[in-house]
Specification:
By secondary structure, this protein is of the alpha/beta class. It has helices spanning about 25-30, 45-55, 70-80, 95-105, 150-155, 170-185, 195-200, 205-210, 220-230, 235-240, 280-295, 300-315, 325-335; strands spanning about 1-5, 10-15, 15-25, 40, 60-65, 85-90, 110-115, 120-125, 130-135, 160-165, 190-195, 215-220, 245-250, 255-260, 265-270. It is about 40% helix and about 25% strand. A ten-stranded mixed β-sheet has the order 1-7-6-2-10-11-12-13-14-15, sandwiched between helices. A five-stranded mixed β-sheet has the order 4-9-8-3-5. Helix 3 (about 70-80) crosses helix 13 (about 325-335), helix 9 packs across helix 10 (about 235-240) and helix 11 (about 280-295) runs antiparallel to helix 12. It is globular.
């Protein structure tokens, strides 16, 4: 099923998930042997078991919303003013209906299929230090495939945005590769996020397949950059990353982010924030950056707005702002 949206903005390819957030303590993560700050993939049985233990614990579900990394980025870009399109795979269930309704309500066009299993879901476990830990059951989103990519919508996009989480599934990798190749033929620029250190360590082959001979823009955080290049020096990592991307953005937490190309590297300071939840910080950063680039901003200018957007998001709970109007309000608060 395809819904149309005039598009010179962002075409996103990623998992379609429902997010459920819990505030937990470090002891719970230790008891469950969960790697703090990382994303762990589990099957339906593993997810059900963890959900049951959470239900029996003192930790209550704080909020739920549709999500997925690339979907969050496209939602942000749309909220800031860009047009958006998203390739999805959801189940014929309430979660799938909500996911599609949320994107439609934001004016984001979609292409994909419904049915074949349950919509994917993600448990976001947030500790007192604002660190987020993700437990993900991909559900039917793992069946995302090339036929879910609307090639006409890719042709119309300025940027193709691919989340690295797709590296865990062969068909999803193929969908990302198709979007990159179609976009390249139409003049769209492909941007890719490494997404999580666990993807770099466990699914590097899939990431390399999606990267192909290189992309226009690469997003990652410091830990992912160091893991990808096998070094403990960020300057060395950045030099290597600019071999696979014309432009690289590396987020470094509250300090801000680095923008780099073969010819230059620049530190763009962050904005003050009382962080309570870092979930989605990288997603809104990417969405804000891509939106700014579609409006003609230079990379450091785009990174400055992205730093501001991330600082605003982490001061509240949840991987997204509540609606398009909230993103528009954030944009109005920004002062370069």
């Amino acid at each position: 099923m395809t819904t149309r949206q005039p598009n010179r903005g962002i075409f996103g390819v990623g998992n379609a998930l429902m997010d459920f957030e819990y505030l937990v303590d470090d002891g719970f993560l230790r008891d469950e042997k969960i790697a703090k700050g990382h994303m762990t993939l589990v099957d339906e049985a593993g997810m059900a078991a963890l959900e049951a233990r959470l239900a029996a614990s003192q930790f209550a579900n704080r909020l739920s919303m549709s999500g997925g990394s690339a979907a969050n980025a496209v939602f942000a870009a749309r909220g800031f003013g860009a047009s958006g399109f998203y390739a999805y795979r959801v189940g014929e269930d309430d979660a799938g209906k909500r996911f599609l309704a949320d994107l439609a309500g934001a004016g984001i066009g979609t292409s994909g299929r419904r049915g074949g299993g349950a919509t994917g879901r993600c448990l976001t476990l947030v500790t007192a230090d604002a660190e987020r830990t993700l437990i993900t059951c991909l559900g039917v989103s793992a069946q995302l495939a090339p036929q879910d990519v609307d090639e006409a919508a890719v042709d119309a996009a300025a940027y193709v945005y691919v989340e690295g989480y797709l590296a865990s599934a062969a068909d999803a990798c193929d969908a990302a590769v198709l979007a990159r190749e179609v976009g390249a033929g139409a003049g769209a620029r492909t941007s890719l996020s490494l997404s999580d250190p666990s993807m770099v360590l466990a699914f590097r082959d899939g990431l390399e397949k999606m990267l192909g001979n290189g992309v226009h823009q690469l997003f990652c955080n410091e830990e992912e950059a160091l893991a990808w290049t096998g070094t403990d020096r960020l300057d060395i990592a950045i030099r290597e990353l600019t071999d696979i991307a014309r432009f690289v953005n590396v987020t470094v937490g509250a300090r801000g982010s680095l923008t780099a190309s073969k010819n230059a590297s620049r530190m763009v300071p962050g904005y003050p924030s009382q962080a309570v939840d870092t979930t989605g910080a990288g997603d809104i950063y990417a969405g804000a950056c891509l939106h700014a680039l579609t409006e003609g901003a230079e990379p450091p200018e785009a990174a400055r707005f992205a730093n501001f957007a991330a600082a605003e998001l982490v001061a509240q709970h949840g991987a997204r702002l509540r609606g398009v109007a909230d993103y528009a309000a954030l944009r109005r608060r920004f002062r370069p």
